[in-house]
Amino acid sequence: MARTRAGTSEARHLLDEAEALRALVERVLAGERETRTAVWRHFRDLRARVVRRDLGRMDLARLKDTAPERLQLRPLETAGYRTVGDIVDRTPADLSRLPGVGLRTATAAIAAAGALAEAAEDSRGIRIELDPADARSTDLLTWLRRAVLLADAVGPVRARTVAVARSLPGALSDARPARSRTRMFFAGAQSRAAAQRGLDEVSQILVDAADQGGQGLARELASAVALLDRPPGAAGVWTDFERQAVQYYGLLGEIVGNRGDLSSATGHLPTEIVDRVRNQPLDGTLRTVSLRGYQAFGAKFALVQRRVILGDEMGLGKTIQAIAAIAHLRAQGESHFLVVCPASVLVNWMREITDRGKLTVHRLHGADRATALPRWTAQGGVGVTTFDTLASLDLPAALAGRSRGPRIAMLVADEAHYVKNSDTRRADALRALIERPELVDRVLFLTGTPMENRLDEFQTLVGYLQPGLLDPPRPRSGDPAPVAVPGSWPGVAAALSPRQFRERVAPAYLRRNTADVLSELPERVWTDEWEELHSPAERAAYRDAVLSRQFMAMRRVAFTADPERSRKLGRLVEIAREAAGNGQRVVVFSFFHDVLDLAERRLRAEDDCGQVFGTIKGAMAPDDRQRLVDAFGRCPAPAVLLSQIVAGGTGLNMQAASVVVLCEPQVKPTLEEQAVARLHRMGQVRTVRVHRLLTVDSVDQRLVQILAAKRSDFDAYARRSDLVAAGPEAVDVSDEALTRQVVEQEYARMARAAVSKARVNEAP
Predict the structure, then answer these.
(1) Are both 343 and 198 inside the same structural domain?
(2) Which of 72, 132, 331, 431 could crosslink 238 through cysteines, CB 3.0-4.6 Å?
């Protein structure tokens, strides 16, 4: 590039161009700051109003919960104060004027009210209630949408924009004399040299501001400028919020901050690990989505600890965290990445990589994998394959031609519990890769249920990543008794105390629960809908199933024996009709194909239940499942989607729906939780209503009774990240044992009923 000489017309043109770019960059960045300030102001006002409403519903007696000393509230109640909201804005002087209220009591009461107000503010988090009629919420969303659009427009060129904003003003100041030939003529030698250096710097900044294709930064910021030229508008903002709630909440959390529970967001990890993770930079250049604080921590954890399990509860965005880690490494110069997942979520992974990052994705699965594999090895990017296909790819041989290593910068295994059994072919294929550090550098296992059956399977996953981490240590003086968990592996549970277990697993395991980190998630309302076997045909079919000990037949008699008079089927239609009247979408889950077929026929026969989509079954190709879910989400509400619970209960995001119907209780509580989590997850903005259809005096009742205790144990153990290893065997008993227990109980119940009836008939 030819050098532009100071004092020439070319210099004046160059400086004019640079001044225009500086003004544009400053306008865009100032517009972003103003927009974010408006978001914060509207959020602050909205939250203050909601907190005041909550305090106005809080009984005055709650002050005693936080006061450091005993409070005498009767004088306040006599004076007409009934709620915390009545006194939160008062001063000690105001209250001490009341009969019987001293200054000490007044001061303590107001301090307690302030503590409750702060707690109420924290508990509200950043949730925006779905109320289009609320003007303040609409104002907040209007400015938040502007912030989202600006972030989308500026994000791809943010690094260059900020660099120009920092360096160009100083360079222009130095180069100012170079605009005038006269000033250059009369300037001294040192001044002329300084002006020429400034002009050279301005010229270089303009070159650096252009992208690889030669497009100027001004043209790339055109959409941001056009957005700032228009006043914020509220039209369609609530619809956009429902569709892009993840982006809205992600940016809102970034702008206003979301204190939350810091120890929960960091998974209760030891301080030294937390400090290392927090100090890890996270390059967002190639990422197109804002991260929540806990998500950024998860991505950094994977980078710092290198080979780990991310065991966040379903719905917290494990996929986004993995993509953020990959995008960071790609921005730092790494080239090859691999995602291994079940076939059911392969399409979703490819879409998420494309939507959430500026990354190249290659499908190493199916008919085209033979051509896709050499393309991935030559070009780099993110290869996506399945556990079963991995063994046939022979990646070591495919990557043999690369001279620089490790050859795969990060391997992500989604639903990693698929390889918890170490003696399977899929586990062998995965282990053959990750046990070669010269071939694979970082490894990230993703799973919401990493200890689904027994502790030794959790040890297997940890052993893949950090061998020796759970080797038995020597007991230390003063340690409490070792963990004694049925089904644990010899030598480890016998030697590790609870504290030692937490310490040992921390370098390789991070888990956060939904309630701890997603304060904006709307509530989940669970209703058990009890019906009865109404017709003689149903009761006879059920009796036959019990006597023949046909467990699966017992579970679906309420649907299949007499569909025309089935109370369960009738209640399903009522729920769908009610949801349709409220403009909501419904997802219907069942374990059984024939139940779903009956439900689909009945719903299609109704003209007031909305459009019916279905049915997702295990035999359906992953691409077809995703297309069906996409069509369901795009169609105008109301609508109904039917799905087999083992096929649609994992890997598919169904936040467009807010009503769930479980046609029968499941043998494993985790199946129900996973199915509901398809809807009740990050991005959901409506209250999720769950209806579980049950039949009294039947197998349903026995299952609910047995599994209620198991679910309680799960809440007590598995949701605690430090004791999560003790949870699964307290949650999921084996199918065989549970079947035998339920069938025998039902057989005995019916026998007792038959004896009782015979005695009644024999009575004189």
Answers:
(1) no
(2) 132
For the chain, report the end-to-end CA distance as a whole number of angstroms: 115
CA distances from 143 to 35, 148, 383, 722 (A): 6, 9, 38, 41
Give the model's confidence band at 280: pLDDT under 50 very low, under 70 low, under 90 confident, else very high: very high
Residues 707 and 640 both lie in one domain: yes
Distance CA 96, CA 479 (A): 53
Average pLDDT for the chain: 82
Question: What single letter denotes the amino acid at residue 666?
Answer: Q
pLDDT band with cut points at 50, 70 and 90 for residue 725: very low
Structure tokens given for 552: 């699966």
CATH number, domain of 583, equals: 3.40.50.300
Q: Which helix (H) or strand (E) holds 53?
A: helix 9-56
Residues 6+ apart with CB under 8 A from 48: none
Residue 491 resides in a domain: yes
What DSSP string runs through 689-733? EEEEEEESSSHHHHHHHHHHHHHHHHHHHTTSTTTGGGSGGGT--
Per-residue three-class SS string for 55-95: HHCCEHHHHHHHCCCCCCCHHHHHCCCCEHHHHCCCCHHHH
- pLDDT higher than 90, residue 755: no
The pLDDT tens digits for 713-724 are 444 433 444 323
Q: How many domains does the chain have?
A: 4
Q: Which of 70, 74, 40, 47 is nearest to 60 (CA)?
A: 74
303 with 346, same domain: the answer is: yes
Given this model, what pLDDT does residue 389 score? 92
Give the CATH number, domain containing residue 71: 1.10.150.20
Same domain, 140 and 124: no
Structure tokens of 194? Answer: 């300084």
pLDDT tens-digit map of 1-43: 578 887 788 888 889 888 888 899 999 999 999 999 999 999 9
Residues 717 and 726 sit within 8 Å (Cβ to Cβ): yes
DSSP string, 175-242: HGGGG-HHHHHHS-HHHHHHHHHHHHHHHHHHHHHS-TT---HHHHTHHHHHHHHSPP--TTHHHHHH
Q: How far is CA 52 from the centre of its chain?
A: 30
What gap in Å lies between CA 5 and CA 21, rounded to an integer? 20
Residue 376 binned pLDDT confidence (cut-offs 50, 70, 90): very high
Q: Is the pLDDT of residue 733 over 60?
A: no
Other Cβ atoms less than 10 A from the Cβ of 358: the count is 15
Q: What is the 3-state secondary structure (H, E, C) of 143-177?
A: HHHHHHHHHHHHHHHHHHHHHHHHHHHHHHHHHHH
Please report the pLDDT score of residue 1 as a whole number. Answer: 58
Q: Around Cβ 590, how many Cβ atoms within 10 Å?
A: 26
Q: Is the peptide bond prior to 406 cis by the omega test (within 30 degrees of 0)?
A: yes
pTM of the shown model: 0.66
Strands in 440-446's sheet, in edge-to-edge order, are: 361-363, 381-386, 336-341, 408-414, 440-446, 307-310, 509-510
Q: Establish if 253 belongs to a structural domain.
A: no
Q: What is the CA radius of gyration of the chain?
A: 31
Identify whether residues 172 and 29 lie together within a single domain.
Answer: yes
pLDDT at 640: 96
The dihedral formed by the CA atoms of 513, 516, 517 and 522, expressed in degrees to the nearest 10: 100
Domain shared by 173 and 293, yes or no: no
Between CA 312 and CA 324 the distance in angstroms is 15
Domain that holds residue 544: 522-751
Q: Are residues 333 and 384 in the same domain?
A: yes
115 shares its domain with 147: no
Q: In what order do the strands lie in the sheet with 688-695?
A: 524-531, 688-695, 659-662, 585-590, 639-644, 611-616
The sign of the CA dihedral 197, 202, 203, 208 is: positive
Give, in order, the Cα–Cα distances in Å from 75 to each of 85, 98, 130, 546: 17, 8, 40, 65
